[in-house]
Design a protein that fits this description.
The structure holds two protein chains of two kinds. By secondary structure, chain A is α/β, with parallel strands linked by helices. Chain A is built from nine helices and five strands. In chain A, strand 4, helix 8 and strand 5 form a beta-alpha-beta unit. Classes of the chains: A alpha/beta, B mainly alpha.
């Protein structure tokens, strides 16, 4: 190596030491810088644990959407179907059309349920549905929708908003089905992330069997 | 690496790729460092929860720009540039996968990849850009003389 410029061919342990040194130095500097400004004066910097921004109600979402209807979505919340309706405040049953599913909490679901103001859809497998579901919920397993998209197009929400739920957790099924419904032209799709586990353990009515109202 | 044309393996090309990659990372790191809060929001938009817990988003946001900065300096200055190129390639692959995964889930947001100013909504164009930048990094890691 008799060039005067570095030829960038370090290898073996020298290479991996370099890789680790770069990653480690970067992480340490980042954390150190944040610590300095976080505990410095004036206090600034990021909290050590991230907590996602939350909107209070569906009405707030509607307002934000109305103020910039055509513009690309700008704030983290509006970009974020999961955060979007971390909206649990139980005022009003109007659902804004934001072009994607909106997450709702149990209070909102209960309000819709009591008012019979929504078409409820169960995204789980038929066997799980038969063991217990929200009374009146229609079973539309996401796995079946994937192979038979016509089910989505034929789906009639009877002019009501749709609430999709499944087995809780991160609830991929509901989110996927929610998106599929939106893509199939449904305007008002809510996703209830708490799903069956939360509903059934909160003292709410349940139905068993293959039919919406129970056997 | 038989599939790479021989001309790309030339040492000068490799060093050039390393410098280009370094400049890309420096350009990406500085605006992020100027507004970490915005960058944390961007990271959150990717919804990496299955891999990274939500509460760790801020840790990623405070470390990624600094790792970019250090790797960028290594690449440009020629102090351990090949190590820098590996870090660059690994991070770029992670970013690209993040964008693809977000697109696959139907998410749509400004990527914040070069801070707020270089904002653009993620899409096929962003993926293509990232693949080009990834290729530059891979050329920078070639170890043949």
């Amino acid at each position: 190596m008799d060039r005067w410029w570095p030829d960038g061919t370090e290898s073996g342990s020298r290479l991996w030491q370099g890789v680790i040194a770069i990653a480690f130095t970067g992480c340490v500097l980042g954390v150190a810088q944040n610590a300095l400004i976080r505990y410095g004066s004036p206090k600034d910097g990021l909290a050590w644990r991230y907590s996602p921004p939350k909107l209070d109600s569906l009405e707030d979402i509607a307002k934000q959407t109305a103020s910039a209807p055509a513009a690309p979505v700008m704030t983290p919340d509006m970009n974020d179907p999961l955060q979007l309706g971390a909206a649990s405040a139980a005022n009003g049953l109007d659902v804004p059309d934001v072009g994607r599913p909106i997450q709702v909490q149990i209070a909102k679901v209960k309000a819709f349920y009591d008012a019979k103001a929504a078409t409820i859809v169960d995204a789980r497998e038929p066997a799980e549905y038969a063991e217990g579901h929200i009374p009146g919920a229609i079973n539309m397993p996401y796995d079946q929708v994937v192979t038979d998209p016509e089910r989505l197009e034929k789906f009639d929400a009877q002019g009501k908003p749709i609430i999709v739920y499944c087995g809780g957790g991160t609830c991929e099924l509901s989110m996927n089905l929610g998106y599929a419904l939106v893509n199939a032209g449904q305007k008002k799709v809510l996703v209830y992330m708490g799903g069956w586990p939360e509903w059934s353990t909160s003292g709410n009515p349940v139905a068993k069997g293959q039919t919406p109202e129970g056997a | 690496m038989g599939w790479i044309p021989a001309s790309l393996l030339h040492p000068t090309v490799r060093r050039g790729a390393q410098i280009a990659a370094g400049l890309i990372f420096l350009a990406a790191a500085l605006p992020k460092l100027a507004d970490l809060t915005a960058f944390a929001g961007s990271v959150h938009n990717f919804h990496l929860e299955p891999i990274v817990p939500v509460s760790a988003v801020n840790l990623l946001a405070m470390t990624i720009p600094w790792v970019e900065l250090v790797a960028g300096l290594a690449l440009v200055s020629g102090v351990r540039p090949r190590a820098g190129a590996f870090v660059y390639t690994a991070l770029m692959a992670f970013f690209t996968l993040g964008v693809i995964a977000a697109l696959a889930r139907g998410l749509s947001f400004e990527c914040g990849c070069f801070g707020k100013a270089g904002a653009g909504t993620i899409g096929a164009k962003k993926v293509a850009e990232n693949l080009v930048m990834l290729a530059i990094g891979m050329i920078g890691t070639v170890d043949r003389r």
